[in-house]
Amino acid sequence: TPSSDTDSNTDSEEESMSEGEMERLKEEVEEKKKVIAIMRNKPWRMKRRLVHLKECQEFVDKFEGALGKGKGRKFYAYKVMMTKKWIKFQRDFENFKTTCIPWERKIKEVESHFGSSVASYFIFLRWMYGMNMVLFGLTFGLVVIPEVLMGLPYGSIPRKTVPRAEQPTAQDYSVLMDFNGYCKYSVLFYGYYNNQRTIGLLKFRLPLSYLMVGVGTFGYSLMVVIRTMAKNADVGGGDGDDGEFTFAWKMFTSWDYLIGNAETADNKYASITTSFKESIVDEQENQKDENIHLRRFLRVLANFMIICCLGGSGYLIFFVVKRSQEFANRDDLSWYEKNELELIMSLLGLVCPPLFETIAELEEYHPRIALKWQLGRIFALFLGNLYTFLFALFDEVNNKLEEEVSIRNASIWAQKEYYANFTLYNNDTDTTPPPMDPSDVIRGPCWETAVGIEFVKLTVSDIQVTYLTILIGDFARAVIVRFLNYCWCWDLEATYPSYGEFDISGNVLGLVFNQGMIWMGAFYAPGLVGINVLRLLSSMYYQCWAVMATNVPHERVFKASKSNNFYMGLLLLILFLSLLPVVYTIMTLPPSFDCGPFSGKAKMFDVIMETIDLDLPAFLGTLMGYAANPGLIIPAVLLMVLAIYYLNSVSEAYQHANAELKKKMQMARDEEKNRRNNTESTDQVMKDLEDLLPNRSLLPPAPPPETDNKADQGGKSTKVRPGTAGKDVNLQKDVSLSSPNPNARGAVTRPPGPRGPGPLPGNGQQGPGGGPGRGRGRGQPPPRR
């Protein structure tokens, strides 16, 4: 058939191709592939792009699979096909991963209307949610679920039973809201977990798992934060420095021509507008003139006022904690007196940030720099409040530890008295008395559960205050401004109270310190991680709705840093500060004698030594004993410090080299720009000069041989050898402005004389002299005398 003949001819042609032709065809295929890859960046019209794309794809499809020879051609075609499918799978998988990113569309919508600075908060919130999901999986998978499935049930032992005196009110709403009653004796808190070395058929070591999860929580968080900071350092550059021609790039390259949805187009339009506002603010800040002495005085004054506020808030927290310790011995407490500490800390976190922002108006920093100062000050406020709370709380813990000694003696005495009374009542010393009812056993203070309850109450009160602030302070304010503006005496939208702006610094610091409380409190209350996951999940939806419905963009919209390392730096610092009280608890304080997985031990870390002695081979215990020797630990720490110093020095050297390379690139770019400008101006001058010269070659003709027919030969035109120039191609030698004028016959040394008798115009005869007539510019110059 004709088709089979054509195929056979094609195969024979392909097999008859030489190696050079094959290589050339491969190069053409690669070139077409490169054109397809960069087609989107070509400054062409869409019709031209589609035509070229179709041609390139047809060429690649036609020749790519036919580059093999003989039997190898089919394998090559198969390999090419699989490569294409793998590339398509990777592209589809990347699109699938992008689709699976949670809340990406919500965050993009917020960014398009409020700028990258507000969107950075929601990106940070999403990152915190992901990290807490991992911590939730660790805690519930290795601590809570094993205790629920394999541990003793509720009511079997005293630590899992509500005391008889508390049972009538154990289910009251007010009691449950204070996390007492049944909440206190549940898996939410430390005291519920048993101290059995192994539980269940799997012989699960719950005390060891509890300690390892508590330490692993900090280890995982530290690893994730540092890894994220390193990743952001690679992505981020200078804050807001996009190079040259910022507005030109934004004007001509911002729009996405693949948008096919009206709502997406509106969001993109708002995003471009906001981006222009951000760049305008950056440009205004770079060109601003200021009185340096007045500015320094105002900044010193603002910092003095803020330090006074920080000291006052710390003293207030300390006073309230001491007062709450006095309230602990009273039973007739009102609701405010019970929750005074949590309310004061929440109100300080609510009132002080706006006060700091008002004082910071005196400094007139760039909005991005002002945000960092605001974050640092609120960080100092929260940190001072938190550590003041911790110091006062550990004072209370020490009091409970002193009280625990007497309670422990009383419980031992009560148990012996119960056995003696049973023997006396039955008059039988051989009968084993039944155990006491768990609800009647005297309980110790269980200071770990008390600390966990305080952290849970702080977290819940912070959630309540945050949500009520958004509902009342933003939503109610927006409703009043929106519906009462038509019947009010002044313009509510343009003046007071107007719509609220999204408080970036307050919300970011709220997230950071809430996470710090989770890290500290999760060791004493394993259920706190689950509460925090619910809080972050609801905050994403609630705050996205609030910012889109009740807030307006900032008056000075500014661009966020390309990396969120400032947020991560604050989080890393609060992680380190959260680690200190937990390590102090594990290494120093004795655990409670009747609650928790470490009861009955002198220190909490003794469970590790017990596991090494009983479960591991003897030589491993010996090795770990040597490894714990201070003689090895101190040199290891010194080595780590030296390694950190070396890496820091190398990093600074790389940064310096990077800065120098940037300077050299800028200088080279400036030199190229100046050279191009000078070349263009010089070319223009040359063109102007050439326009003034005669319209023929300025090069002098080649000197002819000295013969009598010089004049005749000079009048002949220069011939071009046939075939030396292409068709319809005019050849012309380069013109040099410095070459002499070929029309010049010599220097003129006398004025022109009268015209001699010669032929009349139109008459070709010569005059009587037999030569050409002399006149201005005619004939040979006269001989010199």
UniProtKB/TrEMBL annotation:
The keyword Transmembrane helix applies. Residues 764-774 have a biased composition (Gly residues). Belongs to the TMC family. It is found in: Membrane. One of its GO terms (cellular component) is plasma membrane. One of its GO terms (molecular function) is mechanosensitive monoatomic ion channel activity. It comes from Oncorhynchus mykiss. It is a multi-pass membrane protein. Residues 751-760 have a biased composition (Pro residues). Residues 665-678 have a biased composition (Basic and acidic residues). Residues 8-20 have a biased composition (Acidic residues). This is Transmembrane channel-like protein. The chain crosses the membrane at residues 133-154, 208-226, 300-321, 374-394, 517-537, 566-587, 623-647. Residues 1-28, 665-684, 694-785 are annotated as: Disordered.
